[in-house]
Automatic annotation (TrEMBL):
Transmembrane segments: none annotated. This is VOC domain-containing protein. Pfam families: Glyoxalase. InterPro entries: Glyas_Bleomycin-R_OHBP_Dase, Glyas_Fos-R_dOase_dom, VOC_core. CDD domains: VOC_like. Residues 1-122 form the VOC domain.
């Protein structure tokens, strides 16, 4: 249903370094680079960061977040660790999150601009 998504970033080089490291465990890499935007994906740029030089830090209560699918719980763990090492802030440690309809394993981080990013997988029962 969704072809691609993007987030605004205040420092393109800093955010590119962050996302290269954070998304690598999920198999995503930098595919396209333009003066004010960078596209990440596996074979096609599905996720973009766009330079917004006057952008303020994203307020915590905006409610927006992006979620990337991981192949395994180990990949979710690796995403979280890599994101923290790259300057992100934990917004939910890796762990199982059982709910009424679905059981999933996820981790949440805030990127350097405050964008809320998640990695998720659905382990077998």
């Amino acid at each position: 249903m969704i072809d691609h998504v993007s987030v605004g970033v205040s420092d393109l080089a800093r955010s590119a370094r962050f996302y290269e490291r954070a998304l690598a465990p999920l198999g995503l890499m930098r595919l396209v680079e333009r003066p004010a935007t960078i596209g990440f994906g596996k074979a096609y740029p599905e996720f973009w960061i766009n330079l917004r030089t006057s952008m303020a830090r994203v307020p915590a209560d905006t409610g927006s977040h992006l979620c990337f699918r991981a192949k395994s719980t180990a990949d979710v763990d690796a995403f979280h660790a890599a994101a923290l090492e790259a300057g992100g802030v934990s917004d939910g440690a890796p762990g199982l999150r059982p709910h009424d309809r679905v059981r999933y394993y996820a981790a949440f981080v805030l990127d350097p601009d405050g964008n809320r990013i998640e990695a998720v997988t659905f382990p077998p029962e």
